[in-house]
Amino acid sequence: MFKKFIMAATVASLPLASSVQAHDQKYTIGLAVANLQADFFNFIKESAEEEGDRLGYEIITVDAGGDSAKQVSQIQDLITREVDALIYIPAGATAADVPVRAAKKAGIPVVNVDRNTQSPPGDTFIATDSEEAARILGEYVAEVTGGKGVVGVVQGQLGTTPEIARDTGFEKALANYPGLNTVEKQASKGWHHDEGVSIGQDLLQRNPDINVIFGRADALAMGAAQAVRLANVSHDVLVVGFDGDREGLIAVKQGRLAATMTQQTKLMGRLAVRFAVDLIENRFVPAEMLLDATLTTKENVDRFIEVHP
Which of 1-10, 88-97, 120-129, 296-305 shows the lowest per-residue confidence on average (mean pLDDT)? Predict the structure, then answer.
């Protein structure tokens, strides 16, 4: 019954969940967000709540603040309140499966967004095709550097779906260029700007020849770019990010980041609500919906800034 879908779509072109219209039936949908300090998750929250308002459903949002244990408790409370469906963005790899097991035991359908779970998975998973997007970003790095360079990576949270996929895709691209080598990777705990600064400094101190840094999220990349400026290195360092957050896009426009991969973040939020309603009403949903991301440089960044002014 379930299928995998990959889309580079706008909402208008979606054949799925198009039957979801505002009607008299009122549902309550829980939205458990990993960390609202990040623009990325805020965009998902905002678009999900807007879609809920449009369709006439109540969205109850809880923010884990990056704390997995807190999120488990929050979701248990949503289950106790008998929400009709759960939209779930895990706060980390630790204990990520626990809320899904609890929701399934209570008969509540689960829509996982951005980060998947394994034992068990949610009823559907919506995310960017991070592996393919990171591969495209790797090809861009190879093109700009002429296929030669020393690469350092500021990783996201180890064990999370985005970190695993972005690592796989980026290294897949670099494997085609023997002169472009990753010398060190160091993990962050929460994908935060300050971690990007400290990890970027560590990478440059241990590997002063680094001329490429990939921050797995825009906040990490901007922190790494700040570390480059503080280190006052004698050569150019190409810094790239991932997300297309508002501040990341501005950094690309200003030249602080060379590029990012812009995700269809607001589409994720709208789809999550549509799929939640489809699951409640026993309609078909795909097991996985992967969306394209767009390589964003100075040449095309303005059109994305217009969307996130």
Answer: 1-10
**pLDDT (tens digit, 9 = 90+) per residue, 252-271?**
999 999 999 999 999 999 99
Specify whether the CB–CB gap between 263 and 293 falls below 8 A.
yes
The fourth-level CATH superfamily of domain 4-128+264-292 is Response regulator (3.40.50.2300)
The band of 15, judged by pLDDT with boundaries at 50, 70 and 90, is: very low
Q: Do domains 4-128+264-292 and 130-242 have the same CATH topology?
A: yes
Domain range list for the chain: 4-128+264-292, 130-242
Cis peptide, bond prior to residue 121, ω within 30 of zero = no
Half-sphere exposure of 136 (CA within 13 A, CB side): 17
End-to-end Cα, the chain, rounded Å: 40
Which tokens hold the place of 105? Answer: 């035991």
Q: Is 305 exposed, middle or buried (0-12, 13-18, 19+ CB in 10 A)?
A: middle
How far apart (Å, rounded) are the C-alpha atoms in residues 90 and 113?
Answer: 8
What are 131's two structure tokens?
A: 């592996």
- Residue 89: pLDDT over 50: yes
Class of domain 130-242: alpha beta
180, 147 Cβ separation under 8 angstroms:
yes
Residues 20, 274 contacting (CB under 8 angstroms): yes
Mean pLDDT of 217-231: 97
